[in-house]
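Lab notebook page, bench 4
Experiment: in silico fold of construct C2
Operator: M.H.
Input chain length: 525 residues
Purpose: comparison with the prior construct
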Amino acid sequence: MRKALLLVLLSLVLVQCNSVQHHNAHLNDLIAVNKLQKDVDYAYAKLKQLHPQLYWYISKEKLEYKIDSLKATINQPMTSFEFYKKIGPVLYSIRQGHFFLYPPMKMYTKSENKLLTKKGTGPLSQFELECYEDKLYVVKNKSKFKSIKPGTQIVSINGKKVDYMLSEYNNWFTSDGFNTTLKKNFLGKRFSTFYSIDNGVKDSLEYEFKYSDSLKLLTVKRSKNDSTEIAKKTADTKVTTISKEEKKAAAKALRKKNNIYGYNELTKTYQRSLKILESDSTVAVMKIRGFSIGNYWKFYDESFKKLKQHKCKTLILDLRDNGGGRLSEINCLYSFLSDTTYVFLKPSQVNSKTSLFHAEYFKGGGIIGKTVKLIFSPLYYSYIFFKVHKNADGNYYYRSNTKPEKKDENAFDGKLYVMINGGSFSASSIISSNLKGSKRATFVGEETGGAYNGCVAGQMPMIKLPHSNIQMRVGLVAIKPFYSSEVDGRGIFPDKEIKPTLEDRVKNIDPEMNWILDDIKKTNP
């Protein structure tokens, strides 16, 4: 029995290695013209089949003209990546921020991935990067090269000018509608992702840095994080004096905390936090980095009870760089912020009675999870089918969060400030739309990256183009907040616009927070 199991495991490993090798061997194969043109038709057909608001920001005539023009310019064989760079700008003209294309990239076996992890952090991830005035800067240095100060410009990488790369990568994604703040925000913070798509994963990079008109060449290699090494040394030298029971209790308490506050393993940060200011105990700051991890209800329930106990008069809700997440979570948060009974969403539009069947229901969960899903799949698909209805306007809708809901008994009724920026996207824009529309809050910062009038997201399956193997992420649900704006295709505008400068970031100055604290003092001297 043991031998049979080992043979099965060995076979699976060999199959994986062969599939990885086969994939990598064909990455740069040239694809025939007629096959590339068929992929264009396939992509457009899938968008028409699944996307409920395809012509929200572009007319059908203009999009089809672009599609036809693209096919006409495909007159020679190309690699998948060359085709990706050609088809991307055309499909991104639909201006839907959740829509995204993924070109085929080099794959790694489990052992190769383990080796990369063992080697440590890649040369790009050792710096936190942001864009200011179309240039790329280091705002935080996590490498061992401490001579690279925050505020240093990256001029080139491996001899390639960064200005050129920024200009090209700007075509590799889109925002909701016509706003520009999301692109400025994402282009710097996600530069390492775009660079890896363009050049592959690198163990070593040669940077050209510029600081105070002085240029410096420096080679940065993959290496272990300093904090990881310090933590390891500390753990090695630490004498264990606690019992097994105490260890178990401490581990349990940590798991509970991580669940409630939403610990992110990748960034080593908590998604949710609440802080009551020491300088003024009537003011609290709630920072929400995302709406996607952990037991959110427990956090909000405990937090707003705490605000009531401390008799807080002012709450500052920080949604800057919050890329979104679960609708259920923002609806929960809104119930603690609303000052009256409310309706959270308009009916959600889908493209057909069965378009939600294309959602990746069986994705994830392993063998046991997939088996359970298979058992309950008839119920799931029946529920989805009967939940979708055709309205008098000829479109299909399903209703979620569309009925009047009461505010929570511990809802905050004091002064509310909301901080936003170009990284406030998707779900964080939906809740901001309702807070803005209901005149519940004062907004400070810059226009959100997500649109005021909603987005197309919800279920987002990956569609593979048959010949180029480019994957296309398509939103199936048009989600619209209860409140809307006459200015379509733009985000939520702040009541007080403040745009942090590079100097602010380098010196850890928070001008939005400073303005709010000054405003509180003026209101309550």
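Observations: Residues 113 and 443 are 43 Å apart (CA to CA). The radius of gyration is 25 Å.
Next step: discuss at group meeting.
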